[in-house]
Write a structure and sequence with these properties.
It contains 6 helices and 2 strands. The chain is mostly helical.
Length: 311
């Protein structure tokens, strides 16, 4: 039973490592997406500054608007530098768990917005008992049963046999002597150990039931959050982001013709970038939650090993 428990513990640690690699890989992909978004923001604000500069030179816009556009560009560039630092940190974190001092890859290749078909919740819940976390309880139960059988065996009287040679001094003869002995049973022989072993079995069963109830509740919460993240990401990418992009194009068109102010243009830009960032965050949450569910149910991690472009 102890050997079985050691093997189960090893499998649990392997799954822990796989789940952590998945989480760190997702962090790299998300950081890459964030960096691309900040670069898009820099390009957008740069073009806006160029357009405003032309308008100011033609005396169609006040100089203050160009100053605001320059400040917006500076902020966008600072955000890009911050995103570069976060990507660098996430790359080193992934390299560390792979056993490398330095990242041996340039970019992680994955589509953050690809969502696999989810299994029904009841099917996932049925897999909990096959995970190493709960196989520990099964192995522990076998160990407790073995302890009970040992205590019961020790409660039985042991028959002792003896065999020897005896020499008689008076006649100078020798004789073969055989004998046996058996302890007299008493009412409480090893009963304390037997009761203790039975209590441990009951405790193990109760702990397993309580742990399963907690795990099922945790799985249900993770599953619902996973569905929410998927729905939110899809809604942002299919509805909110296209609408914000269209609105920005309309505001830009109107700004060039004097119908909108720079403040309204900047608000439209921030709205689009904010929705895109929200979509990245929501998709990242989806993959993190999926990794947690797969760790809890001991299901194979989705997808194949990530490819990495060599330097």
């Amino acid at each position: 039973a102890d050997v079985d428990l050691a093997g189960i513990e090893q499998r649990a640690r392997e799954l822990d490592v796989l789940a952590e690699v998945t989480r760190r890989f997702v962090e790299v992909v998300a950081a890459q997406q964030q960096l691309d978004l900040t670069r898009e923001s820099v390009e957008l604000t740069r073009k806006t500054l160029e357009a405003i500069s032309v308008s100011v030179e033609a005396a169609r816009s006040p100089v203050a608007e160009r100053s605001r556009a320059q400040i917006a560009l500076t902020r966008a560039r600072l955000d890009e530098q911050r995103a570069q630092g976060e990507l660098r940190s996430s790359r080193y974190a992934l390299a560390a768990i792979l056993g490398d001092e330095e990242p041996t890859f340039v970019a992680a290749r994955a589509d953050l917005f690809t969502f696999d078909t989810l299994a029904p919740f009841n099917r996932l819940a049925g897999q909990i008992e096959r995970s190493p976390d709960f196989l520990r309880f099964a192995s522990d139960a076998r160990l407790r049963d073995a302890e009970l059988r040992l205590a019961q065996a020790q409660a039985r009287p042991n028959l002792a046999l003896s065999l020897g040679v005896r020499r008689f001094e008076e006649t100078d003869d020798a004789a073969l002597v055989a004998g046996f002995s058996i302890p007299l049973p008493v009412a409480d022989r090893n009963q304390g150990n037997i009761r203790q072993a039975r209590i441990r079995i009951t405790q193990s069963q109760a702990q397993r039931q309580a742990a399963f109830a907690r795990a099922r509740a945790t799985l249900h919460g993770l599953y619902q959050q996973l569905l929410t993240s998927q729905t939110q990401t899809e809604a942002l990418r299919s509805e909110a982001v296209p609408q914000a992009r269209t609105a920005l194009e309309q505001v830009q068109y109107g700004y060039e013709r004097g119908r909108f102010s720079f403040v309204e243009l900047a608000d439209a830009q921030r709205e689009l970038l904010g929705l895109q960032e929200a979509a990245i965050t929501s998709a990242t949450d989806y993959h993190r939650l999926r990794a947690e569910i797969e760790r809890l149910t001991s299901a194979p991690l989705a997808g194949t090993a990530p490819e990495a472009s060599q330097p």
